[in-house]
Amino acid sequence: MNKLKFLWQYAKPYEKQAFYMFINVAIYAFFILAAPLIISYMQDHIISGVPFENEMIQRMVDAIGGIAFLQEHLWIGSVLIVICYIMIGIAIYQRSMESGRLSESFALHVRNHMYDHLQKLSFDYHKQKDSGDLIQRSTSDIETIRRFLAGQLAEMMYAILIVGIAMMILLSMNVKLALYSVSLMPFVMMAAYVFFRKAKKIFLDCDIAESKMTTVLQENLNAMRVVKAFHQEQTEIDKFERYNEEYRKKYFDLMHALGIFWSGTDVLCLLQILLMIVIGVFMALQHQITAGTFFVFLMYESMIIWPMRQLGRILADMGKVSVSIGRIQEVLKEPCEDLESGLSPEIQGDIMFDHVSFRYEDGDHEVLKDLSFHIPKGSKVAIMGPTGSGKSSLVHLLTGIYDYQSGSIKIDGVELKEIRKAWLRKHVQIVLQEPFLFSKTIYENIHLANMGANREDIEQVAHMASIHDTIMEFDQGYETAVGEKGVTLSGGQKQRVAIARTLLSHSPIIIFDDSLSALDTKTDRMIQEALDQLDESLTMLMITHRVSSAKKADMIIVLQDGHVAQMGTHEELMKEEGLYHRIYEIQMKGGNQ
Known about the structure:
The protein is α/β, with parallel strands linked by helices. It has 23 helices and ten strands. It has helices at 2-11, 15-47, 55-64, 66-72, 75-120, 123-128, 131-138, 140-173, 175-181, 185-222, 224-229, 233-285, 291-332, 391-398, 421-427, 442-447, 455-464, 468-473, 491-504, 521-532, 547-550, 570-574, 579-589, and strands at residues 351-358, 368-375, 380-384, 406-411, 414-415, 428-431, 509-513, 539-543, 555-560, 563-568.
């Protein structure tokens, strides 16, 4: 019932298309049943001259001119049959058009909602899920439902209508032969029901195996540079073949089950037709039915048997549709991250941490412990510390990706948890250590940070990020396509484009999450000098491992094991025995200053 509500929820806006589709299916069923009846009546009544037992049909014939008139104009019967098949053709075309509109509109609606929902889910959810599995749910699972609505829904309507109306006609003609005509059908429907129950698990296993294979494929394509660098081609091939073989086995199990179902129901349907023919011939020889009646039964038998068997197949396929709906609902039931509720205060860049502690939901210990410090508006702050000291976690808190469990973080005197997250992220921009560039031009990648910016603004921030001259060396300049994830650019070039993009946002708080580490010392220094020329009201936080990048900062915060180990200027920290002094000595000896 829950899955039917899902279908209705997204199909309701297109109920007009569903209604027109049903009407055309009904027209199709009516005329395909009418053609054999016309032939039967021509044989048993018009040609033989026997009056009709049905008074309504007899009155219609009398209105035309009677049986004698039709005997002289047999072409009228042929024209009626031709009209029936013309109407059948028109109804099939209209049914296909309306089912196409319904299915495509439904799929469009669900895809848009699914994509919108995925965008609004928390970062923690995406971190836990395989991207390949989410892609499959957003594509092939929706496609499974679309195919059902495009063809099988109309087929199901047709099967129900054709079987119901045909059985009423056959029962009115001869009850005994009508019952023999469907005597084996309960076994066909029973087989379909049993298969439907079994098929759900098989379909789910196939979907899971396919999603695993898709994840391996996507991961490999995204990491192709690493694969090539470490000569892991054969390892990746072996891994893909293993998952591909698992998917093949699951799919073979599905084909085996389908083969048993189809062959078994085919035998039952053919036996049903044979049974009807044998009994029908016997009854015709015994003059219990006319030749015209036998012809109608012969024609209607196929119209009943194969749609009923098709109805069984549709019920079986609904197992896969049910699985697909369930997988989509799993995603849609996940609560969205609340981006819109909260305050929208003026953000200038004053940041206060007051005894802040934080632990990841799936972690068993705190990664940030009792942090307290104040970053005045317009300050340039460097955050240093060994791997695992909590630097990235601190950034996650400032951008609202995660919520701290205790303590207080205030921006310009307003509690961070009370600030609307969409507003917060608009005013707190971050340049990641591994920047992501879209498969667009360099200009478009920078421009998306501020759609109101002009060419001059973009070139200005590119100059500040020390990437303008490099861009102009490309044949197409700013119109150079960077490829998927910026694959055509070097690591340093991607980093500088990302820095330019962030600077274009004109946010009052900018965080560099170790994003200068991919740059050489000279370029790092050039960007630092350009940043020094920015508006003094800009607050910058720079996570770095380089003392050379940190020593010009207004304040350096050294983290160790999740707490503040040291805090002060370069000169102040150099006077202390501590982690910062040891890092400085190591880098001095290594020549990395």
